[in-house]
Amino acid sequence: MANLVPCKSCKHEVSKSAKSCPNCGESSPGVNSKDHLIGCLGIIVLLVVFIGLVESCSNDESEKDQLSEQVGSTSQTAVPEIPSQDSKKTDSDTPEFDITINQFADRFSQSMSALGLSGNFQISGESTQNNVLSGTLVGDSENIGVSIFATPETKALQSAIFIGTGDGSQESGIEVTFGAVALVMAIENPDMPQEERKNILKNLGLLNGEIFEVDKLSFERVGVKYTAMYSDVTGLLVTADKKP
Q: Among 58, 65, 89, 107, which residue's Cβ finds the most Cβ atoms within 10 Å?
């Protein structure tokens, strides 16, 4: 009876390879978010080495069909919980990016499309408290979201927080991973060359799985500080803050 793990939903012991939990019916009960995200990294490495991320893959329908067959059944998951403005303290002296939150939303959508994923993201739930405008980028995906913070008067972007939580499928793992890359692309260049996208994967610790071995990873690019963290509870979180 080796290889038994707690069901990710009801904690009943199940086989890690079980398709559903006999107790609560959860799909892929023995696969947690870390497992499927690690699994998708192998696919990403192949994409980087052999087909330059997704650009070549988008031109090869047989590759897409093969990937969709590998996905299998997925479980229902909620939209990732995005931190509120109370957890992201800013003030009038906070450095600003040279883009508004509306421009950032367009650039994030463009970046997701460039990576071969759904790019229909719009700002939802705008509110202002403590002289900080906040909102959330939401799209077709239930696995990713971006919390944004800005100066109320100008709507100039101050910071952004990406959160991605998978649902146990390789498809969602790829979506979360590329979504983190899209955050950096949206800030820097939505038409970023594929070699730079590969560098972002390295910086985020996603190309070699380093993100799973450390508390957090921080790096700087073109005047922006990025911090990446991962846990089984919150999934993958990446913050982007303009340096003074």
A: 107
Number of structural domains (the chain) is 2
Task: Answer yes or no: is 219 within a domain.
Answer: yes
Tokens 């910086």, residue located: 203
pTM comes to 0.68
Residues 134 and 16 in one domain: no
Same domain flag for 118 and 236: yes
For residue 67, what pLDDT is reported?
34
pLDDT on residue 66: 39
Residues 173 and 237 both lie in one domain: yes
Give, in degrees to the nearest 5, the angle at Cα 195 between 95 and 174.
Answer: 80
Task: Report the pLDDT value the prediction gives residue 154, as an integer from 0 to 100.
Answer: 95
Domain that holds residue 10: 1-30
Residue 214 is assigned to a structural domain of this protein: yes
